[in-house]
Write the structure tokens for this entry.
Amino acid sequence: MIRQWTTRLIVAATVAAALGVMMRGDTGEWLDSAALLLLGGLPILRVGALAMQWSRDGDRRFAAAAGGLLVLTLFGVGVVALLR
């Protein structure tokens, strides 16, 4: 299931980036920002799935480490989105 979402996010980011390069003005910038956010969503999705699996398996240390990594990744994606 994660592979389906990963593929969909990559395709959506590619389309958004390609359209963003071709279009000018605010629409192009919006599409470029959308592509960056979609690409930022990839590690969030993957690490989130791992955190959920580790939580279900009872590996609290790994789940906590994944949660910390999720917070850092969300912060980084937020910074990129704000600076864009």
Residues 2-83 form one domain.
